[in-house]
């Protein structure tokens, strides 16, 4: 059910844009006409003075044979002509004003028709009507620009709505998988009358692993929500920190996995000072390092570089691994994408690079990725350096 927006009631006669344009056009038209009538009246009164150069007492002989003083005849002539001009001018002004107001109302209505289409489309919008558009085909004017802008906005809203639906569906599926594993293991074990302690221990191990996976997914979703909530706003926490230090901590956290698959790690960790939320920046470095290890292969390579030029600080993380098509790289930053494919049941939550992008956006930075020939990916993060960020914040104040 559609209706008037809350808090705004429309009386029968309200000062609509069409009415205001009509009244403005009418006032301008009548005002201009009134000025023209006034000027004509003044000109006629000044022009009709044929006896001003005659001697006093001069008389004129009228067509009906009457004789009249020239000055009195001039006054009578001026009064008659002025009155007739004023009466006919006002009548013409009334007619022109009426026609002009009616025409302006019709023209304004036709010109503002796309605005009514925008309003009607906005009122019809809903989950099942996001495909509707104005599709204005009139003159290429400001109204057409407004209609096109509204259609583009609807395209973005529809895309965001579809992305949200996919996100909810994927999140539900990811959470349902470990829950289903836990329930299946519990049901199977409890239905086995001959299950011993070892079997219960095995079931407990499976349930623990599945619960850890579900907990990790929930934590990742919370971090993603927290990062996206701060995009375009002032960060809740702003502390000067070093990307190199966070990267070194992330490398230490995956040292055992690196040794297990025998990765060749190459580092060049120059100071990279930035200002931001330390927790989010640590998660950014941790996600990049964890992804580079998780999607690597035995005896692969991992390279990490940090640095700064005074304006920007950067973090580069690259790895070998399975081949990734460059066309699939933008999709890697979408939630629940792993290696350019939407898969569930794989290692990781598929939110790592989504969180990286959200953290970069929240800190006013950028993130790009390049597929490596022979397999693997190199991800580069650029953030405002600490000095540049402090200068920009002071200017904003």
Automatic annotation (TrEMBL):
Enzyme Commission numbers on file: 2.7.13.3
GO MF term (any one): kinase activity
Ranges where the HAMP domain occurs: 109-162
Coiled-coil intervals: none
Key words, A-Z: Kinase, Membrane, Phosphoprotein, Transferase, Transmembrane, Transmembrane helix, Two-component regulatory system
Record's catalysed reaction(s): ATP + protein L-histidine = ADP + protein N-phospho-L-histidine
SUPFAM superfamilies: ATPase domain of HSP90 chaperone/DNA topoisomerase II/histidine kinase, HAMP domain-like, Homodimeric domain of signal transducing histidine kinase
One of the Pfam families matching this protein, by short name: HAMP
Broad class of where this protein is predominantly found: membrane
Compartment(s) where it occurs, according to its Swiss-Prot or TrEMBL record: Cell membrane
Membrane spanning residue stretches: 21-44, 85-108
CDD domains the record matches: HAMP (cd06225), HATPase (cd00075), HisKA (cd00082)
Domain Histidine kinase intervals: 170-387
Annotated PANTHER family: SENSOR HISTIDINE KINASE TRCS, SENSOR HISTIDINE KINASE YKOH
Protein's UniProt name: histidine kinase
């Amino acid at each position: 059910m559609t209706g008037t927006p809350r808090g705004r009631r429309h009386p029968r006669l309200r000062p609509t844009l069409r009415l205001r344009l009509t009244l403005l056009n009418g006032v301008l038209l009548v005002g201009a006409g009134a000025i023209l009538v006034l000027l004509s009246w003044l000109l006629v009164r000044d022009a009709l003075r044929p006896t001003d150069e005659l001697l006093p007492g001069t008389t004129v002989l009228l067509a009906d044979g009457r004789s009249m003083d020239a000055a009195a005849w001039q006054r009578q002539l001026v009064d008659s002509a002025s009155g007739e001009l004023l009466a006919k001018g006002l009548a013409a002004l009334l007619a022109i004003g009426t026609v002009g107001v009616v025409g302006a109302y019709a023209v304004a209505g036709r010109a503002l028709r796309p605005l009514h289409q925008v309003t009607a489309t906005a009122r019809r919008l809903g989950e099942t009507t996001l495909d509707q558009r104005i599709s204005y085909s009139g003159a290429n004017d400001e109204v057409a620009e407004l209609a096109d802008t509204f259609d583009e906005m609807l395209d973005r809203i529809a895309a965001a709505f579809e992305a949200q639906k996919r996100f909810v569906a994927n999140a539900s599926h990811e959470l349902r998988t470990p829950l289903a594993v836990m329930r299946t293991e519990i049901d199977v074990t409890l239905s086995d009358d001959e299950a011993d302690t070892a079997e219960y221990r095995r079931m407990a191990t499976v349930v623990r692993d599945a619960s850890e996976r579900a907990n990790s997914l929930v934590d990742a979703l919370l971090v993603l929500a927290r990062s996206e909530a701060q995009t375009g706003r002032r960060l809740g926490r702003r502390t000067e920190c070093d990307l190199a230090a966070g990267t070194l901590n992330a490398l230490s956290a995956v040292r055992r996995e690196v040794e297990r698959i025998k990765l060749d790690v190459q580092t060049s960790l120059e100071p990279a000072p930035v200002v931001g939320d330390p927790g989010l920046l640590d998660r950014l470095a941790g996600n990049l390092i964890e992804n580079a290890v998780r999607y690597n292969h035995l005896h692969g390579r991992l390279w990490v570089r940090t640095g700064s030029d005074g304006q920007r600080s950067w973090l580069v993380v690259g790895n070998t691994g399975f081949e990734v098509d460059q066309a699939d790289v933008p999709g890697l930053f979408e939630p629940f994408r792993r290696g350019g494919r939407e898969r569930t049941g794989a290692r990781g939550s598929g939110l790592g690079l989504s969180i990286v992008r959200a953290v970069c956006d929240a800190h006013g930075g950028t993130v790009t990725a390049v597929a490596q020939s022979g397999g693997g990916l190199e991800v580069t993060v650029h953030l405002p350096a600490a000095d540049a960020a402090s200068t920009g914040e002071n200017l904003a104040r």
